[in-house]
Amino acid sequence: MLRSSQPLTGPNRKRCREDEMLLGTVLDEGERGFIIDTRSAQAAKQARMTGGGTEPKSSYPQWRRLHRPLERGRPLQESFIKLVEACNDPTINMDRWLSRLESCRWLSHVKAALSTACLAAQCMDREEASVLVHGVEGTDTTLLVTALAQVILDPSCRTLVGFQGLLEREWIEAGHPFHLRCARSAYSHARLKQEAPLFLLFLDCVWQLSRQFPFSLEFGEHLLLTLFDNAYASAYGTFLCNNEKERRVGCLCKVRENTHSLWSWLNRPGEKKKYLNPLYSHNTLVIWPSVEPQSIQLWQGLFFRWIRPSQYLDEAWAETQRLVEGN
Amino acid sequence: VENVRLLDRLSSRKAALGTLYLTATHVIFVENVSETRKETWVLHSQISSIEKQATTATGCPLLIRCKNFQVIQLVIPQERDCHDVYISLIRLARPVKYEELYCFSFNPKLDKEEREQGWKLVDLNEEYNRMGIPNNYWQISDVNRDYGVCDSYPTEVYVPKSATAHIIASICRSSQPLSGFSARCLEDEQMLQAIRKANPGSDFIYVVDTRPKLNAMANRAAGKGYENEDNYSNIKFQFIGIENIHVMRNSLQKMLEVCELKSPSMSDFLWGLENSGWLKHIKAIMDAGIFIAKAVAEEGVSVLVHCSDGWDRTAQVCSVASLLLDPYYRTMKGFMVLIEKDWVSFGHKFNHRYGNLDGDPKEISPVIDQFIECVWQLTEQFPCAFEFNERFLIHIQHHIYSCQFGNFLCNSQKERRELQIQERTYSLWAHLWKNRADYLNPLYRSDHSQTQRTLHPQMAPCNFLYKFWSGMYNCFEKGLHPRQSVTDYLMAVKEETQQLEEELEVLRERLANLQKSQLNDNKVESKQQDRSKQLGLSTSNNSLANTPQEYSNDLKSFPSRSPSQGDEEDSALILTQDNLKSSDPDLSANSDQESGVEDLSCRSPSGGGCLPSEDSGKDSDEAVFLA
């Protein structure tokens, strides 16, 4: 599986021999590859006007391009804000709750993200083909797809250690601009242009997986909530800045020298226990989620965290732990 | 009929070829695939509707929809055969006499005494004693001993001591007062006074009318209606609008239509669900139950509940309130007692509502289904508070419609006695109790704080707390549910822990003894090792094997939800399991394949070999990804 940004074909349909060679080395004679473009076909075409574009079929004959538009940017942030508003609105009747939920579109985005990741996973696992994923920059929806696909495909990414490695690799080092994307969250009226909850969408999708496969992830909801919190505001330097360059060179603070790593804290023996899933049992198989609407639920633990009493569910979780540990 | 195809509801590519059999009690489809010969059994009583669709080149399609939400699509090659099957099924699915129902021929090979014991398992006299009556304020009355006063009520009813025989005609679980616009009924009013006096701690009672106010007012024009507060002293009136049986019937219908959508988007689903209004109704019933529970537990005030006739919404609402108030009803036995008391003994019209016999379609309504769903919603909110699990609720619902047992036949105790149900059929409660290990909730502890008190669900804001119950309404769509059940796993863990603890005790004793005498230590150790192998929990993840669904809308690619290899092996296990259980298969196990398989895989002492690994052969009917 590969990821990149969009090819810069531009309005004159420029070719790039180096790009073509690079993709060429991935495939053997007669093999096929798939390119998953996270923009709609039309949006991808229009991108040519601003210097971007898509891979022309003639230059990449072994690759088949598929478009799976995923929401990003301002519309995604709006969706998030609307959802949080709806969840906090005490006046909504049961008559209107579901349509209000629908109008936020958040669950549709979860469904689309999971479907696309599953598609990428299918290409690799079932078709045994290579997959290239890209959107525009390669730092948002691209990472959502590649990271999720790995959780689906690779059992080591489902361990606590492996998941942290996945985050480092596919989000932090890959250059997801956390500083821009996770700025003010849903309550702010600032409506910053660059803000968008891609990382939260990823965590939501992982939560859906944990619900559908309760034995297959070594970590639980508590880890996902902690990551969500720390992406926006943290005592640790892990999610600071927008990319590696800023963290090492650009930023005045020199992250590695001056801050502590979230991972070092999470992995301390006393802390670690809280994040582990007592039901975990190493599963070497691929986990294929159902993306039917009935299977995708609203992440209550996140969106109703401060509204609904979690006491009874916490007790249930404690009881589960007690049963498993007693054994 | 041979060469019939059973279609997978979501992917026409996955059709199974086999033979269709019609017996006196079931429709059976047996797959041709020689090694497994997987069987699908459907009880005639479960059939809700049959639709003959337009003949195509491949044959004549027949769609069977069941009351337990299973949907079966068959394709019969010859139109003539299809028509014959259609006509036969229509007749078989609409029995005219009670004797045609399965419970009268079902034979679990028990003797007469066992059958009788089965019926005695739930004893309402015991229950009333447990509740503390008769006492100073309440006594038993036999005024209805020949069903002379009310033929839908039981022969023994409890009434306030201060109520004379002549006013007992009005009763605490009442139907609407026949007040009209201006008439008064002195007996009614006196009865309510008697009820109020039976609770010396409060100087008023609530009268809860579970109908929407408009409906109640409309009833006034027909000489019925609701209590005029001026005439009844010391009552506080409360309307908690729950819609009538026709609205509920339509609501369920609309929701099932949403479930039948092919590849719905999130929008389609959410809009469809909202339009059906189903969750809104569930919440209304729950809110009414919460109101009543609060009045009794927090305010210490008695509550009189009624609707139009007193056997639908009243039952729902009183049962929910009882569950909230009394932890006994949250135990398995207690729940059976609750249904027996509030629904069976008090004349809920099972026959009319659930169509045991062919009758007026306008009387059909998912009243008890809604109550059962309320219970499930509560188990989701309070996971440690109930002794039973989801499977228990689903099996009860299935058997209300299956007529395999005699508990839910007819419309009243009187009718059941006339038909001699207890002598001629078997009790569901005995059957469930026998298999109670399958129905336990591993998180339940009787000493837990959640289980001991009144439950206080939030009333608002809590729309989000009501979830769509895909375990019930998509019961038969395997791909939607997690392949391994957490409940079953935890039950297995619990059992093993218990066994190990008992084992430990035994070993401790033996060690103590050994320290006195002189024996070979090696013997003890090897025994210990053997034991732990036997008890080894299978958490093998081969059971998590599943296949991807169709993730791409526009490109026909991969097989849809139901894992195919999984099915073949699963059904072989089911047939074995049924053979072990009894000679007459429990038909709910046949239709509830998922849980049956999971039980076996979780507890198998031999390890994880039961279910195929996900990679054990690519599906032959997987299309190439891109056509």
Write the layout of secondary structure elements.
The complex is a heterodimer of chains A (327) and B (627).
Chain A: E1 2-4, H1 17-26, E2 33-37, H2 41-46, E3 63-67, H3 73-88, H4 94-104, H5 106-125, E4 130-134, H6 141-153, H7 160-173, H8 178-181, H9 198-212, H10 221-232, H11 244-250, H12 255-258, H13 262-266, H14 269-275, H15 300-303, H16 311-326
Chain B: E1 4-7, E2 16-22, E3 26-31, E4 39-43, E5 47-52, E6 60-66, E7 71-76, H1 79-92, H2 112-120, H3 124-131, E8 138-141, E9 157-160, E10 173-174, H4 186-197, E11 205-209, H5 213-220, E12 235-239, H6 245-259, H7 266-276, H8 278-299, E13 302-306, H9 313-325, H10 332-345, H11 350-354, H12 367-381, H13 390-402, H14 413-418, H15 421-424, H16 428-434, H17 449-452, H18 470-473, H19 486-516, H20 521-534, H21 564-581, H22 587-591, H23 593-603
Parallel strand pairs in B: 10-13, 11-12, 11-13
Antiparallel strand pairs in B: 1-2, 1-7, 2-3, 3-4, 5-6, 6-7, 8-9
Brief descriptors of the model:
heterodimer, A: mainly alpha, four-stranded parallel sheet, B: 627 residues, alpha+beta, PH-domain like, seven-stranded antiparallel sheet, 13 strands, disordered C terminus, Myotubularin-like_Pase_dom (chain A)
Q: What's the tally of helices of chain A?
A: 16
Q: What percentage of residues of chain A falls in helices of 4 or more residues?
A: 40-55%
Backbone shape of chain B:
globular
Q: Could you describe the largest sheet of chain A, including whether it forms a barrel?
A: 4 strands, parallel
Number-wise, the strands of chain B total 13
List the chains of the largest interface with their residue counts.
A-B, 67 and 72 residues
Nearest-integer average pLDDT of chain A: 92
CATH fold name of the domain at 4-94 in chain B = PH-domain like
The CATH architecture name of the domain at 4-94 in chain B reads Roll
Terminal CA distance of chain B: 35 Å
Strand content of chain A: 5-15%
Main beta sheet of chain B: strand number and arrangement? 7 strands, antiparallel
